[in-house]
Design goal:
This is Pectinesterase inhibitor domain-containing protein. InterPro entries: Invertase/methylesterase_inhib, Pectinesterase_inhib_dom, PME_Inhibitor. It comes from Brachypodium distachyon. One of its GO terms (molecular function) is enzyme inhibitor activity. Keywords: Signal. By secondary structure, the chain is an all-alpha fold. About 55% of the residues lie in helices and about 0% in strands. Helix 3 packs across helix 4, helix 4 runs antiparallel to helix 5 and helix 4 packs antiparallel against helix 7. The chain has a domain of about 140 residues: Butyryl-CoA Dehydrogenase, subunit A, domain 3, CATH 1.20.140.40. It contains seven helices and no strands.
């Protein structure tokens, strides 16, 4: 005897409602792709701002783990370039032992700006190696240790400032992508960070 299947007893309007509700839920998940990608990053809201800027709804089809990581790296390159200038500016006029600390901090940020700021396709394998090295060296991406308890400005290089956030987000997203080098056809459109440039006064 063959297997028999019982026909659904749900009335047609109810079946239609269930199908429609399911499609709406799927659409909601699709619309929240940036939020979903950022949930387990160190700074979810900041991460979502970066990815939402890089991938508006019209570019949803371009969003993958690779392109998300690339967008975060380009945002990090943008921020490190600005932060490097600020950190170097902070070394001016320092005459005590704090100068050495600030100079070291500025040099680390300048190195990051150079390594992340490629104008071509993003090489995620090299970026991953860079983050692995800096994390092994416990680089915190802020210059707080150089302030010795002094009042600190709210800027790119203060604790939990933009530099620290963007580097944490970029590292988390890059680690999700297999180490395969530069992705073929990688985007070269720069991703801008969501926060405004700091004052140099």
């Amino acid at each position: 005897m063959g297997t028999s299947y019982r026909r659904s007893t749900l009335p047609p309007p109810l079946i239609l409602f269930i199908i429609l509700a399911a499609s709406l839920v799927a659409g909601a998940d699709d619309d929240n792709y940036a939020k979903a990608a950022c949930t387990d990053t160190p700074y979810p809201d900041y991460c979502e701002a970066i990815l939402s800027t890089a991938f508006p709804p019209s570019d949803r089809s371009k969003f993958t783990a690779d392109t998300a990581a690339e967008a975060a790296v380009r945002a990090a390159a943008n921020i490190t370039a600005r932060a490097a200038t600020l950190a170097r500016h902070e070394t001016e006029g320092i005459k005590d032992g704090t100068w050495w600390c600030m100079d070291t901090c500025a040099t680390e940020i300048e190195d990051a700006a150079e390594r992340l700021g490629s104008k071509g396709a993003v090489n995620l394998a090299r970026v991953r190696s860079f983050f692995a090295r800096t994390e092994a060296d416990s680089i915190m991406w802020n210059c707080d240790d150089c302030q010795r308890g002094k009042d600190k400005k709210t800027d790119l290089i203060s604790k939990d400032g933009e530099l620290e956030m963007v580097m944490g987000v970029a590292s988390a997203l890059v680690k999700r992508v297999p180490s395969t080098g530069t992705r073929k056809g990688a985007t070269t459109v720069p991703a801008t960070a969501p926060a405004p440039a700091p004052s140099m006064d």
